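User:
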Amino acid sequence: MTLAHELGHGVHQYLARDKGVLQQNTPLTTAETASLFGETLVFHSLISREKDPKVVLSMLVREIESSFAAVFRQVAMKRFEEAAHTARRTTGELTTGALSEMWLETQRAMFGTSVTLTPDCGIWWSYITHFIHVPGYVYAYAFGDLLVRALYKRSLSGGKDSPRATWQCSRPADRTGRRRSSGPLAWTLPIPTSGRRDLPSSRGWSRRRRT
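Assistant: Predicted structure:
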């Protein structure tokens, strides 16, 4: 899943390469869309091939835990981040202890009575590098996970575009830097409608003009 996730980022950046290094990065709303879509495709491909019921159960449990981490946990971390920034603006510099208390408060709100968090867990906010490098980034995981699940479900629900998940990509440029065509291109990923949902080969990718 980690490889599928990071490969999704790679594909996303590759398709945006003609934008240049100053404009090819995504906004937070779509920063994790391609990566999580990659995970979704790989998961459904693997679980459709698995025959052992125990392994299938294990995979489903892992997927539920992953969704919990991508949505509920990220939302809890966003609430911690918001509380920390609000406190900093109103009271000034914050101590490590104050940040740890905010972390425990938001994490306990998420877990409720299902998990007992000891004071030692308070410092765990310090290993989340996104808090420093890109404040507000964590919500992109929650948004991306929910968006991808909706997109994947829609791709399997029928309709004139089914069974295809259609992604809008910018027009690629040729080696001279000129556009190869006018108008955007739609990249479509075939998704089988039968019981087998294997990942398509590279031959399955098609490109068509869209007006």
